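Tokens for chain A. Residues wanted.
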């Protein structure tokens, strides 16, 4: 997980060593069986974290799992050597698992058989409490007065063996999670937000994986600046060639070919490998070595007939158009959106809950663009419920949105 520690205040005590020391990574069945027995005999919630190799490896595989429980201590598990960690989940039963930014770690944990029955997300709790900084280090510093170093947050966790300093960092990430959970729970109770948090935690725990993007290549940085379909075809072709190579080599796509190189080729439309490597973005030794592969991708795009070129607008979706176009296309909808956004912003400030946690922006846009035929509180509540809004959000906003819509019509 990644979070930067705010400037150290005089009353923040650096947390530099796990209370149990830095143990060895558990990577064989016998050692794992002992961990399972220990955790099954422990008490209270399980603190958990997971480390990936984002920016180094292809995909979001988990390369280290850290768990801690009272009476059991901390265990550092190697999910590469031990792909099935389900015995640990079975041993602790339906106890609560405490994670920070659970949505980042739960999918990876699930791939290894760890599917908590209950979750407490310390980042989500901090958001609901209106804390300005919600990274783990910042929240620990503010609530516990302890300083977590984060210098190893972006390292290559697929490295083997893992350096001791990295393991120390990993163990410290779960060292005080349960204590942090208790402090946040007290604040949620005092703010009357305990039930809100419970609904949010359950939504995160049970969230379905996001649907694949229909044209993921359009996320290449800078693509939105292109206004020529042939150039977009080059972006698509190079992105696909890069993705194939990255997947085969298990390397992050950005390390195979940076986005800026793809964009440079799309703008230049080189006709030969010589012209391609003459671009500054293709001057690197590794990039030049694979110049023939990249030029072949460019050539395929240049040879496409016009009817097979990608559109400038991208794939059709069932969502509303860009809000900037609403005033011309549907002035009433534009007024609804402006009024609704103002309402949500006011409620956000009143309750000290970020706008994005109060109601998903996409749900609000869809509601304003195609509201129910009779946009009263009941119909708006149904609309929001079908789009994943939680009961606490609906209770707070449905009636107010109905009134706002009536005034904006």
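Reply:
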């Amino acid at each position: 997980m990644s979070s930067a520690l705010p400037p150290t205040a005089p009353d923040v005590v650096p947390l530099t060593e796990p209370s149990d020391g830095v143990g060895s990574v558990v990577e064989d069945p016998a050692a794992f069986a002992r961990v399972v027995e220990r955790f099954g005999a422990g008490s209270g919630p399980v603190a958990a974290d997971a480390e990936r190799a984002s920016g180094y490896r292809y995909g979001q595989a988990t390369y280290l799992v850290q768990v801690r429980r009272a009476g059991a201590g901390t265990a550092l598990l190697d999910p590469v050597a031990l792909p099935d960690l389900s015995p640990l989940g079975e041993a602790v039963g339906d106890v609560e698992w405490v994670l920070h930014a659970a949505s980042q770690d739960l999918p990876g944990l699930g791939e290894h058989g760890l599917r908590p029955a209950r979750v407490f997300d310390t980042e989500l709790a901090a958001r609901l409490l209106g804390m300005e900084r919600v990274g783990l280090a910042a929240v620990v510093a503010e609530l516990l007065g302890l300083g977590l170093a984060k210098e190893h947050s972006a390292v290559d966790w697929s490295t083997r063996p893992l350096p001791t300093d990295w393991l120390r960092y990993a163990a410290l990430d779960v060292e005080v999670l349960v204590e942090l959970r208790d402090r946040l729970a007290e604040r949620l109770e005092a703010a009357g937000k305990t039930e809100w948090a419970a609904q949010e935690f359950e939504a995160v725990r049970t969230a379905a994986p996001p649907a694949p993007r229909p044209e993921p290549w359009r996320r290449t940085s800078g693509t939105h600046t292109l206004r020529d379909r042939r150039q977009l075809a080059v972006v698509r072709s190079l992105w696909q060639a890069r993705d194939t190579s990255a997947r085969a080599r298990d390397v992050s796509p950005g390390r195979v070919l940076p986005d800026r190189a793809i964009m440079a080729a799309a703008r230049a439309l080189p006709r030969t490998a010589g012209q391609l490597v003459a671009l500054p973005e293709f001057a690197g030794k590794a990039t030049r070595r694979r110049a023939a592969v990249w030029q072949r991708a460019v050539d395929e795009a240049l040879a496409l007939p016009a009817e097979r070129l990608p559109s400038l607008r991208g794939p059709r979706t069932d969502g509303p158009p860009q809000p900037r176009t609403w005033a011309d296309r549907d002035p009433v909808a534009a007024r609804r959106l402006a009024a609704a956004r103002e309402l949500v912003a006011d409620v956000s400030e009143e309750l000290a809950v970020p706008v994005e946690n109060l109601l998903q922006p996409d749900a609000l846009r869809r509601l304003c663009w195609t509201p129910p035929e009779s946009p009263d509180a009941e119909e708006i509540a149904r609309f929001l419920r079908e789009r994943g809004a939680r009961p606490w959000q609906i209770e707070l906003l449905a009636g107010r949105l109905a009134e706002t819509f009536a005034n904006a019509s």
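The mean pLDDT is 95. The chain has 20 helices and eight strands.
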